[in-house]
Design goal:
The complex is a heterodimer. Chain A is mainly alpha-helical. Chain A contains 38 helices and 5 strands. Chain B is mainly beta. Helix content of chain B is about 15%, strand content about 40%. Chain B contains 7 helices and 26 strands. The chains are: A mainly alpha, B mainly beta.
């Protein structure tokens, strides 16, 4: 139902837009309305508004071109924007607007020249490049710095849309020249463009190499750094980052010069400076650490900036620092406390950083703070998880954690309580001796959890610390009672973990509380062995059962499931394996990740840090990936089409088959009706007559059939005898059989058959003599059918 | 660089979309944003995400989402700041930036975007610089000389034609936003001052300004300062941890002799921002005592004491006091101010208005509770929120000593200096109510 409603909506949306396009076209053509300046601007705004909303306004292209020669500047801007949007899809008509653009490019007003050039260079129509390129080249030497700054970016555009011209016009060389333009905006745009072009290391023109990034250029750019606006400063800094200082002194000179820009109120600029500092200090760990310390304050400012998105990114940067130089932010744990309105993602990010920076000194206030957050409906579970993490890192905190967990377990929120019980299990796996602080709270309540992991955690705790819980067998009881029902469900797979845990726990507890647990264990084993399907649960139950039923089974089983000496047991060895697993969570890096992390570190400040993946992981050369996507889409489309074809073919085939079958059935029915009395039953004929007729009548049909079974003479004879035909003579053996059969149709046509069966070639041939050929072949088939059936 | 920029409404529908580079299909951007951000599970939402190797950078502002999309490994901080500052620029043009105001000023917004970003690269972001390039209303070309935005070394201020004011004046206000988190027992868990100096320059020509802050101010340079924190405290210096300046400030001069000199941008801008993270004494002491008579009523008593100097006075002061979600029939008694029950927030709002320093005010509220209740009292009670504004006062003690104006034409401009402290997020935790069984 919902689907149908949606379909209807989308349909009506299309209709509305179609209506709009027609309505606007009518307005654009209405000279009365278009004479009113207010109406005009409103109309063009409306068109652009629909464009913005993703509605295709391309059909209006020719109507918009007519108005392109407007004198009004705001209208001009709107119309030009429209034209650049739809020029690629209206290639043939785009030529019509070139004239207007070119005229505007001759204007006395630099802003109009700039606008015209900006629009021209964005047209993306190959066939018009011969008109566009001269304008760009002229723009590079325009008197107005504004036009030059537009022309510089236009050069970059040609790299993508008119690569031939880019090379032919030597734009790259020009960009390097113009990096020294007297105007900082022009120079800054040059540097932006060069940065991007240098990024295409593989496809960059051969002339482009690092030799262009000369010391003198870098000194020149740094010398006038103050004159750039804050965005161009960032471009310049990213350009400088590509430069390798020739000496250490030079490197320190640059760093000293740049240090003041950490004071910019543009976070992007601060990060750009940081990138250079980290790049230059990458070989000197001491220096690199000093740089990290230098960045602590600016990053904290970003975190408390009040802008959650910026704070999120800052925390990602901080996280990478904490991995590189642990401890840089431990003193600032208050910064990462939740704010009232923090979005969930920021709270999560703050939890990850608190996890990293918690240590022996600051765990108390951090835990106190985390406790406040545990009631949070959305991140409560993650908060509890973090609290457990603190516990694993700092065993001293068990007292406090135990109290928090106790409070939490009473709190009626499933996700939080589930996280709490899992936390207790993880801590006790790591530190089994800490049970006195946690186990008493298990015995206080009957808990019910929704998730399997939480249920398993509770069963684990009851089983492995059951000797310290007075009510432990009764806590397990409800779980055991449910087993039979769970096993008989259609899909018992989700319960596998629970049943294994239960088996482990009950068996272990059996050795501590034999009297109370025995019936429980019996029921559990019985239920599983009798109802469970083949698999790990049943196998495990059988292992326990057989171990226990051996003569010395009790002791053996005990040594496996409930050893006195913890160190010796197999089970405990398994546990200690898990212990390592738990400890690993505490380590910031797994070994195999280290290489990737170094790569991420080298790309610090970019998206790599945010995603915590090296660049290659999430980027592909833009053109390639577009191509690839297109191919993929194409392939998908083809596959869909093929599938549809196949399905249609199948459907058609099925339909055809059905029709054919019906046809056949109909024909057979007709035939049956007509030919029912076709052969007279047991028409009489003497062997002499047969011989005579055989000679008189021509051969009318001959049929062959391969034999599947050996020939049984008596049976075959019987078969013919039982049929409506007359057997005249029969002779031979299983290897070579001969039969002469006579038949007479209702229309008095006679048919004579000579049937030969060959045991060696396993072939059965039937030659029929008759005047009526149709009848003959029918006769032959009937005989062969009778014989082989 | 950005490939395209979107301004989307609350439901993710585009209001403005601007394609800068034409290298990504725009068709699915809005849908992907809705799927991966708006309709995604809260636990999985990230403000920056990637779909089909296109990165989405989001910025929420009121009922709007600003969305920058791009390919490759873009400079994410730059993209974010571009979005943030875009809102700032829009603000100077539309007053408030909302779905309505953008729709009303659609052509203007497009015009602004066009000048601000070219092929995904930020160009001009200074509102005063944009003024000449962008037309507020439709005008005939013959009437107005269109001017490209200034490109020279002083990109934040137009020089041709020179700015002219009949009366030359400059407003300088020191605003401190303070965040506090105070435990129920009155100890400060965290406190932050986010200070800024906001300028409103109405000066002709190209004036050169010098700003002097109070002597005691010691700018914290974490790497350089070897001073013991205790001696710092003894000298009563102010520890501004992280100072950032507007682009117009000559950073090199500040670095050498700590003077702040600049050619101001025209109109309103933020000259400088600073931060102080040292634990401060709380401005307000709040004690609360609540009782929950199970099944009958809820009672709470709040005392709030203003700890700042007696001669200072709040312009506004109000407290948001959380109460259980199912209370009814509220009744209040206050020594000062009025109380209002806000059921939509599950809070009592106590508005005190103007209160002098060193004063204690009290409030008592009594509310009914349903006999049968499904909600259980939790171990942690939500905190009390304090909102206030104190004029002519700074928590940090920062003080503008002088602000001089030099212009080649020699006019005298009048500086006006103002101070203000206001609440950012001031939270006081409270103990959970004592449960009294019937």
């Amino acid at each position: 139902m919902a689907y149908r409603a949606e379909e209807k909506d989308s349909k009506s949306a299309v209709q509305i837009t179609k209506g709009e396009v027609t309505a606007i076209r009518a307005i654009l053509k209405d000279s009365e309305i278009m004479r009113n300046p207010k109406q005009r601007q409103h109309t063009f705004s409306r068109v652009m508004f629909y464009v913005s909303q993703g509605i295709n306004m391309s059909p209006l292209f020719s109507d918009m071109i007519i108005h392109a020669a407007t004198k009004d500047f705001v209208e001009k801007k709107l119309i030009y924007q429209y034209l650049t949007y739809y020029a690629p899809s209206n290639e043939d008509k785009a030529l019509l607007c070139i004239n207007t653009f070119q005229k505007d490019f001759q204007s006395n007003n630099p802003q109009i020249r700039g606008l015209a050039l900006k629009s021209l260079s964005s047209l993306r129509v190959q066939s018009l490049n011969e008109y566009i390129i001269p304008c760009i080249t002229a723009g590079l030497t325009d008197m107005s710095p504004y036009v030059r700054s537009v022309a510089v970016i236009a050069c970059l555009k040609t790299f993508y849309f008119a690569r031939d011209f880019f090379d032919e016009q030597k734009y790259l060389e020009k960009l390097f020249e113009m990096a020294r333009d007297s105007d900082p905006t022009v120079s800054g745009n040059c540097i932006s463009a060069l940065n991007e072009l240098l990024g295409f290391t593989t496809s960059a023109p051969t002339t482009l190499s690092s030799q262009h990034i000369t010391k003198s250029l870098i000194i020149y750019l740094l010398g006038r750094l103050d004159s750039y606006n804050e965005w161009h400063m960032q471009a310049v800094l990213r350009f400088v980052k590509r430069y390798k200082p020739t000496s250490e002194d030079e490197m320190f000179d640059i760093m000293n010069l740049l240090d003041i820009y950490f004071r910019s109120n543009n976070a992007g600029l601060v990060i750009a400076v940081a990138e250079i500092f980290l790049e230059y200090s990458s070989t000197d760990s001491q220096l690199s650490n000093a740089v990290i310390k230098r960045l602590v304050d600016p990053l904290i400012t970003m975190v408390i900036s009040g802008n959650p998105e910026v704070a999120f990114v800052a925390i990602k940067f901080i996280l990478s620092f904490e991995h590189r130089l642990p401890g840089s932010f431990v003193k600032h744990h208050q910064v990462f406390y939740f704010k009232w309105n923090d979005p969930v993602y920021l709270k999560q990010a703050k939890l990850t950083i608190l996890r990293e920076i918690v240590n022996e000194q600051n765990w108390r206030p951090i835990l106190q703070e985390l406790e406040q957050y545990s009631i949070d409906a959305l991140v409560g579970a993650q908060v509890i998880d973090t609290i457990g993490f603190v516990g694993i890192k700092i065993p001293d905190s068990f007292g406090v954690i135990s109290r928090i967990i106790t409070d939490t377990l009473q709190f009626e929120q499933q996700s939080t309580t589930s996280a709490a019980i899992i936390t207790v299990r993880d801590i006790l796996r790591r530190y089994p001796s800490a049970y006195p602080q946690f186990i008493p709270l298990i015995g206080q309540h009957f808990y019910s959890f929704e998730t399997n992991e939480a249920k398993c955690a509770l069963i684990f705790l009851i089983g492995h610390f059951g000797e310290h819980i007075p009510s432990s067998p009764y806590l397990l009881e409800p779980f055991v009672e449910r087993v039979a029902d769970e096993l008989s469900e259609a899909n018992p797979l989700p319960f596998v973990d629970i049943h294994i845990s239960l088996l482990n726990a009950t068996t272990r507890l059996f050795f501590f509380r034999p009297k109370e647990v025995q019936p429980l264990l019996g029921k559990l084993l019985g239920d599983i062995i009798s109802t469970a399907a083949q698999g790990v649960v049943r196998d495990s139950a059988l292992v326990v059962y057989r171990m226990l039923s051996q003569p010395d089974g009790y002791a053996k089983t005990q040594s496996v499931f409930a050893p006195d000496s913890i160190a010796e047991s197999r089970f405990q060895r398994m546990l200690s394996g898990e212990e390592e697993g738990v400890a690993l969570i505490g380590a910031s890096f797994a070994e195999e990740e280290a290489g990737t992390q170094d790569e991420v570190w080298r790309e610090w400040g970019s998206l790599s840090t945010v995603y915590n993946h090296p660049e290659d992981y999430f980027t592909r050369p833009p053109v390639l990936s577009v191509l690839f996507n297109r191919q993929l889409r194409q392939a998908e489309k083809e596959a869909t089409v093929r599938r549809e074809h196949e399905e249609r073919a199948k459907r058609e085939q099925a339909e055809k088959d059905r029709v054919e079958q019906e046809e056949l059935a109909r024909r057979l029915a007709e035939q049956a009706l007509v030919s029912e009395p076709q052969f007279l039953r047991k028409a009489a004929c003497s062997p002499q007559d047969f011989q005579r007729l055989w000679k008189e009548l021509p051969e009318a049909a001959s049929e062959e059939l391969p034999l599947s079974d050996p020939i049984d003479v008596a049976e075959w004879k019987g078969k013919v005898d039982r049929s409506e035909f007359t057997l005249i003579a029969c002779g031979g053996n299983a290897q070579n059989l001969k039969m002469f059969i006579y038949g007479k149709s209702s229309s008095a046509d006679v048919v004579l058959a000579d049937v030969r069966g060959n045991g060696q070639t396993e072939m059965l041939t039937c030659t029929v003599h008759s005047k009526n050929e149709d009848l003959a072949s029918q006769f032959a088939m009937s005989i062969l059918t009778i014989l082989t059936d | 660089m950005l490939s395209a920029l979107f301004i989307l409404d609350e439901t993710g529908k585009p209001i403005i979309s601007r394609d800068f580079r034409g290298d990504i299909p725009l068709k699915h951007i809005s849908r992907n944003f809705i799927n991966n951000f708006l309709e995604e599970d809260d636990n999985l939402v990230k403000p920056i995400f990637i779909v089909d190797s296109i990165t989405y950078v989001t910025h929420k502002h009121g009922d709007l989402y600003l969305l920058a999309v791009g390919r490759g490994n873009m400079n994410v901080t730059t993209a974010m700041v571009m979005l943030g500052k875009l809102v700032d620029v829009f603000k100077t043009y539309f007053e408030t930036v909302s779905e309505e105001s953008i729709k009303d000023n659609f052509a203007l917004a497009l015009e602004l975007l066009d000048e601000m970003v070219d092929f995904g690269y930020a160009q001009v972001y200074d509102p005063s610089a944009l003024k000449t390039a962008v037309f507020q209303q439709s005008r005939r070309l013959t009437n107005v000389r269109a001017m490209p935005p200034p490109t020279g070394a002083v990109s934040w201020r137009q020089s041709v034609p020179p700015i002219y004011y009949e009366e030359n004046k400059v407003f300088c206000s020191v605003v401190e936003n303070i965040n506090y988190l105070v435990a129920a027992n009155g100890t400060v868990i965290s406190s932050e001052i986010k200070g800024s100096i906001q300028m409103d320059s109405q000066l002709s020509g190209m004036p050169e300004l010098h700003l002097g802050l109070n002597d005691k101010l010691a700018f914290h340079q974490s790497s350089a300062s070897g001073m013991d924190p205790n001696t710092q405290a003894a000298n009563r210096t102010i520890d501004l941890e992280d100072v950032h300046f507007h682009q117009c400030v000559r950073l090199s001069k500040f670095d050498t002799n700590r003077t702040i000199s600049f050619i101001p941008a025209d109109g309103k801008f933020e000259l400088m921002s600073y931060r102080m993270g040292k634990l401060l004494k709380p401005l307000f002491s709040v004690t609360s005592q609540s009782y929950e008579f199970e099944g009958s009523r809820f009672e709470t008593t709040i005392h709030v004491t203003t700890n700042f100097k007696q001669k200072s006075m709040t312009k506004t002061l109000s407290l948001l006091i959380p109460v259980p979600s199912d209370v009814d029939t509220p009744s209040f008694e206050t020594t000062i101010g009025v109380c209002q029950y806000k059921p939509e927030l599950n809070c009592i709002k106590w508005s005190l208005g103007q209160v002098n320093g060193k004063k204690t005010c009290a409030m008592r509220a009594q509310m009914g509770l349903p006999t049968m209740s499904s909600s259980k009292p939790s171990a942690v009670a939500p905190p009390i929120k304090i909102m206030f504004e104190i004029p002519l006062f700074t928590v940090s003690g920062i003080h503008v000593r002088h602000l001089t104006i030099n212009e080649s034409s020699g006019y005298t401009g009048i500086p006006y200096i103002n101070y203000k402290t206001q609440s950012g997020e001031y939270l006081v935790r409270q103990d959970p109510p004592k449960i009294i069984k019937p």
